[in-house]
Fold these 4 entries.
Entry 1:
Amino acid sequence: MRIVAALLALMAGLAHAQAPAPSPPDEVPLRELDTVVVTGVQPGPGLWKVRKGDHTLWILGTLSPLPRDFEWLSRDVEAVIAQADEVIAPPRGSVDADVGFFRRLTLLPSMLKVRNNPHGATLQDVVPPATYGRWLTLKARYLGRDGGIEKRRPIFAASELYEAAIRRTGLSLEDVVGPVVRRATKQRGLKPTEVRIEVKVEDPRGALRELSGTRLNDLECFEKTLQRIERDLDTMRERANAWAVGDVETLRALPATNQYEACMAAITDSGLAQRLGFADLRQRLEAAWLAQAQRSLERNAVTFATLPMSYLLRADGALDRLRALGYEIEEP
């Protein structure tokens, strides 16, 4: 049973043998950053190097969404992994509920009920009138006549709308980096080092029952998702283009604010999440990743890792924390 994990994954939206000799870089067809979404083969961003003596941690910053119709030229990442002593997987939270396959099937109806507002309420019942009017406009544009979504909690309705808007904008939420990293890691004969915080749920049915009858504080998540769709789609395209063509300076310059903090808080601030131990999940995951990075730098000549670009570039993010600990940082 993974309902809380599914909710967290939804927000996280909070949340990788020597390759054949590649062709020279100047033979790679690149496109200039434009107002439209880039296509074709693109290099992606360079790698950050974190050094301690002759030990190096290579970090690839990831981003979502990305252009839908482009091909990532991943040879640099594959070349690093081909030499790596260790590959650190992205940090993630998970839920452990000791239930078997058939019991998970019996829980499925309860899991589906969690998506809807308690007591049969609709979006119009729980969302302020002005915000609901904006919702109807965006719903008509990106979802069409979908009556069932009106029963959803704001946090789930917002997620469905956001995904539909992304698809209509020439972007994709598909994970481009993960499959490449996993394949290269397997070819190297390594098992990724997990950075995971796992919470045990002793009574999954009771947790579902409590969650299905609990009103989440998710109106801010709903409002910020609408706002991002209304105002930020062009910026998302520019950021996606910048990642694809390897323009890190543009990624630094463009605002990286998004709705995920508010949506994550709607889950982690609930009484159930507090009792389960998800209240400070992001901070614990970041601390766990930093500790793992330090261990890997101590013991390995070469380590590879991926992290969300937002965590890499923000003030007091991973790079700032590693720099404060005395590590040498080399920008791509």
Entry 2:
Amino acid sequence: FEVNKAFKLLEKNQKLYPDFMPNKKDLGILHAIVGTIPDSYKWAVEWLSAAEGTIQQGQEELEEVLAYCEGKDFIFETETYVLYGYLMLHFRKNSERAWTVIQNSPLDPTNNPLAAFIQANIGMRIGKNDEAIQILQYRPKSRAFHPFPYLEFMHGTALLRRLDAQASVHFQRYLDQFTGQNFIKETYQKMAWSALIHGDQIGYQLHMQSCMRQGYLLTGSDESAQREAETGTIPNVDLLKGRLLFDGGYYQQAHQQLSLLGEQHFHSDTEKVEYWYRLGRVQQERQQHQQALTLFQKAIDRGQYLPDYYACRAALEAGHIYEHLGQNQKAKEYFNRCLDIKPEEHRSALHQAAKAGLNRLSS
């Protein structure tokens, strides 16, 4: 209701003062977001508001604001760069453009913790993990700034992705400094993973016991950590290392880690599907598109009815590959396949990404 109220006021103001750029900044991101809402939530939007928009419309409006910023002292310049960078990252799937925009923005991560968060966050999402670690390492930490313990969580995550044993130091700092409710369970899970990949199974068990007892179930990642703790099943170390290396953008190392294995190395359907999915993702980033598509199809066929997200994400990434190759009909087929698969975890985010893909192809 509040967003709908804001939308109506912004559109009214746009008609009254069409040259007022701060108005266009907010409308731009709202138009883009509305264009990616999954069909399963469309009824709510239509019921609550008359909000309409597309990614292309939102992008053009933000680009107009950025052009206006040139040579002017515009109070919302930095914010507009951030909004545009995230639009490029999440809705346009243009990671290099997102990184370039943020790097060329007025953000200074050495003098502003929030700027450090934004640059490191985007870096960690596009495989620039070492750059993110450097940003977080040299961020301002004096008491002149409001406490920002989540940066310790990010620092630990970035180190974990390159299998660095120092990751747990930063996770513990997050637990010591944070007084809120989010990501507590996930932090214990990541500390458990760090112990496991360094051969400490007892440490893994102790951290997962803390995961069971501490924290709240308010985020998808905390719920995922809780599920792992409840199963009592220790993750396959080889798959875990491959996952972490991939998440950090260390694609060659991840390929070496996973390609030494074969599906006969795994016993359960869940592990086999995860293996096909993770190796497919590595091959995708290595531009081995046909191999990636073959692996994704195996993950979809075997995993579409499992509760894990691997099959749903495999369909999404297959759609991204076909979109990249210019085979738009096949891309639409796999984006729709993603929407048909309903995993227990990450469903909303995956479906929104698929909807964004369909939106791009129809614009």
Entry 3:
Amino acid sequence: METVYLPIRALGDFIITATVVKNYSLEKLPVILPPYLVDIFKAIEGDKYFTVTGSIDFPNQPAFFELYKVKDRQNLSRLLKQLAHVFKSLNKRDIYLLDYRSKRLLFTGAKLRWPDAGENNYLGKYELFSKHFAFKAHPEAAVIIKNDTVYAKVLIIPDSRVKTKSINEGLIDDITTNFPGRIQVARFGAVSPDDKPSTIFYSGFDQLISLLNEFDLVITAESLPYHLANYYNKPHFVIYNDTRHFKETFMTPFMIDNNYFSNFTGNNNSAIIKKLEEIIS
């Protein structure tokens, strides 16, 4: 019987696990890697912390983690095919550590383990993985990321794949105006005529990671970049929109320990800027 990590959810979930393994594991962890995680695995030099023992043929996040999309015959067919694929792929004798709880996978009969529901994912994954592999004691987040430096260079990464999570454009303008010469905005994609000359563009994980490491503080939406910033021990501040995404489950320990986050309600620009002034100044 083997115990293996099986990341088959979102990119951010994988980076949370990678951070926990990077910071605390005393050994490389075996991982079954789906194709859609290969690029980010290489970008973060995942082979330093994981040993790839196999692959599971999912080119994108499986449908059983995105049931809100299963509203037509095509997506229902996709869901059933993927569930059947998981059933055939998993060895019933092995233990699989997952990023997220999915009761729909219990039908496979495999031995599945995941963090406790409702618990902060960073803490929950530490507790889960340390039961199966050799891990160091879990220190406070402040030991890992230092926030006592002057934040002379600040990067805002405002966009998210989920549009409702993206940072409000008016708020971005107010932040850059209040910190002249210290804030730069980075966006995914190519330059367009409507973009401001000071905007930075990136087109892949390697460029994004390089950007993160050039700045003293990273301000992001509730999206992958803040998990990557945490992976590289970079101070980060997250601006949430007033939606269901505003919860501590996926916050980093650094954010919680230092109160490095705000919730944008639509008319509290000045309150967010005041909080950033206390941090950046």
Entry 4:
Amino acid sequence: MRLKCGHAPLLFEGATLLGKSLYLLKLGRTRRVRWRGQIVWRKRRHFYAPLIVSVGNALSRFFHCGVYGLSHGAWLYWEETLSPLCGDGQTRRQGQNLLSLPMPGVPLREVLHDENALAFCAALRELQRLHNTKMRFPVGKVDFWSHGDAHAGNVFFDAATDRAQWFDFESIHDLRRSPANRHAADLQTFLFSTAVYLAENQWPQIVRLAREIYADELIWREIYDDLLEFENWPNLVHLGHAHLNRHAHARLLKLLKTACQQDLGHREAFH
């Protein structure tokens, strides 16, 4: 019988350390610059980015993460292609750089401290809208979109318009996986990363909101299967985003498993 991750502290801690290390590795840097009379964000990759992508993808295959970093050319194509869908269409390539107009609002993780249920719901609804859109991926396949790195720092919320915008598309899911599996992975990443910025007594509320807003039973069946698999083998993606200790992580898993097995509940705002 395989040793369960929750019963093996060293396995959990080792996977957490590796996940956090991969998460902290940056492929490039972003700077505010003036371009053609406008203030824009310019992002360029470090010269060692190909090595990080290569090593990260090898580890992803070994641990069955199902997420892969994009090569430089594929990344530029994907960011520019997704700009009209996810933003205002103002992201473009300039040589080997990427230029983007500043997005309105602030990262979701900054307003979660204010117990802003509206921001959480807006980000989740926007993620669901994008999941229902077919795109031509950098590998050439046309399929339903998925983010690949849908954590709470990769979505902006504008309180003036109640609008959420997802960004930072440097990785993609393994497209051999079904859309439902990939969408479930995005939703889990979002929930795991969101929980980090909230008190534990708020976790039941965000899980209930997610269960109600993203009411696709196929997605929640995929999540349940993933959670069962997590008990036997750690998921580096979720551990990298969720800076939680082993016991807190187990409590979050229990909440999610319960939600997968329950009917939709009533909408509740944060306390």
